[in-house]
Design a protein that fits this description.
globular, 7 helices, three-stranded antiparallel β-sheet, single chain, 10% strand, mainly alpha, minor pseudopilin epsh fold
Length: 210
């Protein structure tokens, strides 16, 4: 049975942001819908793909599996990114700020690193929670499916592809990053951190019983 997915609607707050226009969000959403559609299309083709000719140099199965990872990556990255938008920015509080201070030295050092990663990345920047050491890390990705850090959960996603900012900012990516931060919903990031930490603690308990 083919598992199909549907595009999630954008929350109204993303159309009322400071500095990121409705046109940008409308166009960005169309691109996300494209990833959803391609995910469904590739999954359908995989149902009848010839497993008998699978080959590491080239085969239908290999091509479909690789491109499925790109399409699904595009879906998941954008769903996290859209979910984070529409907030009031500012500075995080509570447990999230505590871990940022612990793992980066200070909020300002984390922020400086995130902005630098945003200028260096060709596609994405993620703030992740590492389930091996229980620490936060800023990670760079050049595509929807490149450089994932294994056993890490992304709790923040910054899209640095030109389509995310070119209509509003032209080539000024640095200004786009500043505006992204002013529209960030830290409550969403904190909620994702809470879920990631719960998974981490559960894993420690299982490991202790093994």
């Amino acid at each position: 049975m083919i598992e199909t997915i549907s595009a999630k609607p954008l929350k109204p707050a993303v159309f009322q942001m400071e500095g990121i226009s409705k046109k940008t969000m409308d166009e960005h959403y169309k691109l996300y819908q494209g990833y959803v559609n391609k995910t469904n299309e590739i999954r359908t083709k995989l149902e009848t793909a010839d497993r008998g000719t699978a080959n590491q140099t080239y085969s239908e199965l290999r091509a479909l599996k690789v491109e499925l990872s790109f399409a699904i990556g595009g879906v998941k990255n954008h769903e996290l990114y859209f979910d984070l938008l529409g907030g009031k920015g500012g500075k995080p509080t509570g447990r999230l700020l505590e871990l940022i201070n612990r793992d980066f030295g200070s909020y300002d050092k984390w922020l400086m690193d995130l902005k630098a990663c945003g200028l260096a990345a060709r596609g994405w920047v993620w703030l992740t929670f590492d389930h091996d050491d229980g620490k936060l890390c800023n990670c760079v990705g050049d595509s929807q499916n490149t450089y994932p850090i294994w056993n890490c959960t992304p709790i923040l996603a910054l899209d640095t592809y030109e389509h995310a900012y070119f209509i509003d900012f032209g080539t000024n990516r640095a200004e786009y990053i500043e505006v992204f931060l002013r529209n960030l919903d830290w409550n969403v990031v904190s909620d994702r951190l809470s879920r990631a930490e719960a998974m981490y603690k559960a894993g420690q308990v299982v490991g202790a019983r093994a």
